[in-house]
Amino acid sequence: VGAAAVRQNLLILYAAGADLSSFVVGWSRYDSVPDPDAPTASSEEPPYPTVVAAMRDGWRVIQVPLLLPPDKDDPYTAADLRHEFVLEKLVEVATDGG
Amino acid sequence: MGDEHLLDVEQMAHFVADGYLRFDGLLPVELCERIKAEFEDGTVPQTWPHFHGVPKDQLPGQPLASCFHGTGVGEAIRSDGMAGVLQSLIGPSPLYDHHAFHVTQPGQGAQALHYDAIIDFRLDFDIEIFFFLQDTTHEMGGTRIVPGSHLRPAMDLTRMQNIRGQVQVVCPAGTVVVIHQGMWHSGTQNRSDRVRHMFKLRVNPTVPQTRLWDTTTMDRDDLDDVLRGILTAGHGWEGGDMRHEIVRRTRLWQLISGDDAYDTESWIRRILCAPSGRRL
């Protein structure tokens, strides 16, 4: 009889602000268990409009973005999309038992 | 090349705000075929990044005018349309930086999102010219760009797979897309059964990039409204950083227009306000 093991799928959402209700402006998927419905690199709309909407669909927030003070000498340095939220879903997979 | 080939004020403002311009059908299809053939037969070889065997006057940093003579690429960059683009954005004497043929095989995966200005983020800008040498369908995986991202130096973009407002180039053969060197971009997956060819050329300026374009097109009553409409438009991803982006665009427009007093939202004035000369 096969046993079950747990694997992690990640959804990374970039929001317009630090507020988890602000709208999603970027998204990535990293799945250890491939999900045929996951958005691809060429999808045009985010899978959820907000981080909260993803939570309502069972995604668990495991990291919220650090808020860093502006650089005093150059407060206009913005860099990467900075409101990055990492969410996970745990997926049960069958193993050979061993 | 006559002045009629220079870019106008709206095109220049869009380059400042969006970081790219697209010119459909700028090159004849026959010329595209020649450029592809000259890559395949070695007439114009892939030389980046080592530049082995390249004559000294055609190495990076040498005048573009000394490069690509007698080739389809040379004919393309010296055509009236391309000469107008180069003159308007870079000026009369651009330098050759590098070129590359991007050949994407059927089934080949996507590049991670990246930008090329990792070590050279600056106000004076280079352009990268993408020549799409064949009809490029969505399935063939043309270059994806993130409009408006060019003024935003980043640490590492590779974890970001999708950004709202991203655009994948789908175009007819002979289309030229010109991007600012800071543009976030990537090749996308070729899901077709055809090999995709794209030729990229990067050039650097040697003069201040001020009023090199057709400035007579600024003579219009609605200029302020037109500029403001273009320079303050969002692309879908800016969110709470929109003000920072507009400030950067304003600074670039000051360079492009030669108008140091231009201040679309009056925010540069706020930044520079320091009658005491002291700092917090």
Strand content of chain A: 35-45%
Identify the quaternary structure here: heterodimer
What's the main sheet of chain A like? Answer: 4 strands, antiparallel
Annotation, overall tally of beta strands of chain B: 9
Question: Mean pLDDT of chain B, as a whole number?
Answer: 95
Largest interface, C-beta closer than 8 angstroms, per-chain residues: A-B, 27 and 29 residues
What does the model show?
The complex is a heterodimer of chains A (98) and B (280). Chain A is mainly beta and 98 residues long. Chain A contains one helix and four strands; from the N terminus they run E-E-H-E-E. Chain A has one helix spanning 51-56; strands at 4-15, 24-31, 60-63, 84-94. In chain A, strand 1 and strand 2 (24-31) form a beta hairpin. Chain A is elongated, with a radius of gyration of 17 Å. The mean pLDDT of chain A is 87. Chain B has seven helices and nine strands. Chain B is globular, with a radius of gyration of 19 Å. At the A-B interface, strand 1 and strand 2 of A face strand 5 and helix 6 of B.
